[in-house]
Amino acid sequence: MLRLKGKSAIVTGAGRGIGKAIAQKFLQEGARLLICDIVPDMIVVAAEELSQWGEVYRMTGDVSERAFCEALVKQAAEYFGEIDVLVNNAGIVAIEPFLEHSESAWDRVMAVNLKGTFLLGQQVARVLVAQGKGGAIINMGSTNGHVAERESAAYNASKAEVVLLTKTMAAELAPYNIRVNCVSPGFIITDLTKNQVLAILLCGNIPIRSHSVVLEILRRWRICLLFSPLMRHHLSSVSQSLLMGVNYLGRLTNGLV
Fold it and tell me: Residues 215-242: what's their mean pLDDT?
């Protein structure tokens, strides 16, 4: 069964890694996609590769800029007529010790990870409300938003705020039948993180000395179910975390309590 057949979605940060894997899974489940990334060459290659699984369009831009978010949503509406799903995946990290953490790095991480999630989430939510048919939004958190990691002050703070933003969005958008969820990955091997993951495994910060790859994580979370009509009665926010070797593997938190 194609769980997303006939659905249209926006996936940000889809040039590589988790975003690209989500896009692939969505296409394989029958969705039509508009993907974006800030790196032009990367999103071109990704779109060409992903086209083998279905209908996919691309845009290049910065989600921390309101004008781009507005243009992205407008373009999606023109391509598909309606929007059903948003995956707020775009994100960056700055690895700097707290005492030397620069203001510029702090501002940039917050702009992309938090402001971008807010701006695009708001734009899509307004469209979903106007359409009157409900919809689904997923914000990409991180286990760093639940358990701090050294030399990642801005990233840790931004992801913790994404979790609470998700719960706020869920509470306010539930009356419109819009589901808002947050997924918090642990250490996933991607082009962006492979060197960092190796270092963390070696120093023992992950108790079971393990990691995941993006397609494994999609299977484990059953991420497509967050947008499937099968979940249309589940309106509250869910923050799902995967912490390698920690007791609350796959912990679910109700965002409306």
Answer: 49
